[in-house]
Amino acid sequence: MSLDELRAQINEIDADLLALINRRARCVVEIGEIKRRTQSAVLVPEREQELFARLVELNEGPISEVMLRQIFQEIINTLKVLQRPGKDSSAEVPELRVS
């Protein structure tokens, strides 16, 4: 494949990823509403541990376990804002770390 073809493929994948992240965000919003109604904790460390264990099991590479954990931890941390009561989803987002 040529460079342009690979870049076009990445553009399509990025669009798919964005749609999936927004789909996940909508689920997070609904979960936040349920947690508010039931007065449940927003942070559930056991759930995150289960999520990471499942993802590590599913990972076929080439990304490493460390990379997988970094990517998903960032997604989780960012979307947690949507579960906080009275928070505007665009007002408080964790600081972006760029390396």
Short recap of the structure:
The chain has 99 residues and is mostly helical. It has helices at 3-38, 45-58, 65-80.
Task: State the main characteristics.
99 residues, Chorismate Mutase Domain, subunit A, 67% helix, flat, 3 helices, mainly alpha
Describe the protein's architecture and organization.
With 99 residues, the protein is mainly α. It has one domain: Chorismate mutase (Chorismate Mutase Domain, subunit A), CATH 1.20.59.10. It has three helices and no strands. It has helices at 3-38, 45-58, 65-80. The longest helix has 36 residues, at 3-38.
Set out the fold topology:
Blueprint: H1 3-38, H2 45-58, H3 65-80
Give the number of domains. Answer: 1
Q: Which stretches are poorly predicted, pLDDT < 50 over at least 5 residues?
A: none
- The CATH homologous superfamily is named Chorismate mutase
- According to CATH, the fold-level topology is Chorismate Mutase Domain, subunit A
Order of helices and strands: HHH
Structural category = mainly alpha
What integer value in Å does the Rg equal?
16 Å
Approximately how much helix is present in the residues? 55-70%
Alpha-carbon distance between the termini?
A: 29 Å
Largest sheet: none
